[in-house]
Amino acid sequence: MLWFTGLSGSGKSTIAERVHAELERRGTEVEYIDGDALRSVFPTTGFTREEREEHLRRTGYMASRLEAHGIMVVASFVSPYRESRDFIRKLCRNFVEIYVSTPLDECERRDVKRLYARARRGEIRNFTGIDDPYEPPSHPELTLDTRSSSVDQSVAQVLERFGDYF
Amino acid sequence: MLWFTGLSGSGKSTIAERVHAELERRGTEVEYIDGDALRSVFPTTGFTREEREEHLRRTGYMASRLEAHGIMVVASFVSPYRESRDFIRKLCRNFVEIYVSTPLDECERRDVKRLYARARRGEIRNFTGIDDPYEPPSHPELTLDTRSSSVDQSVAQVLERFGDYF
User: Would the ipTM clear 0.90, i.e. be above it?
Assistant: First the structure.
């Protein structure tokens, strides 16, 4: 399981989607799970700590069952709490935590989805980085810095290190 | 996906476990999901309508993703609400609803887990059949009557009709 974590707008989904597409092209049986997409299936999921953690635990459980049947999982979630990421790590056989470490000021500068602007105006609450915490991984298997590496370079780095890992 | 629904103590898990074991023995890639077992992974899940439905929708989504990768799913859940079962039906490619129709008085007479006695004493709330509703399937693909059929007969019936369905 390749678990991408990082702030909103850090670039994690862009990289994860590319990794997923490349694995699929190679014939790997692989599932891609994206935080935003999954929330659209479960629209009542809120953003309190409790709701976020439950959402992540459920996702992690699903991933672990897919993995148990030999399906590789690529997941992209803000997943701000160390506790929930560690819960998922314990469930999975192979948990690779990939920290997309783009700092807040850079994510906010890019603000692709205009969410930071809205969070700053108070139109969105519990927004990670603004009025909700992000706990960086203590020992991620890989850290990607999108300021110094291009998307292509990041994708290549993930595939080189973990593309045959499973 | 073989989805067993019925009251607590109806015998659905006994039949579903046997079906799962037999499919596995035949070499089918199959996952078994049981309501009680899953609740032990997510112990904070309550029994209000809202919590039950969310729990079932999450389970159904997981099952549909497993199914999408060619894994057959056998699931045993009280799943009392038509709405949540229909939600899962829509997510899945092949949804086979198996109604284990053992009536309340018979489930209560057996009361294998002593749960009906506790529900009658008010020690358990929101207990399906006692102080919470059970909505029987309107058009189940199969109905099993455990009063007139043995476990062996029920298992055989499921496998004969749906063992090669996927």
Answer: no
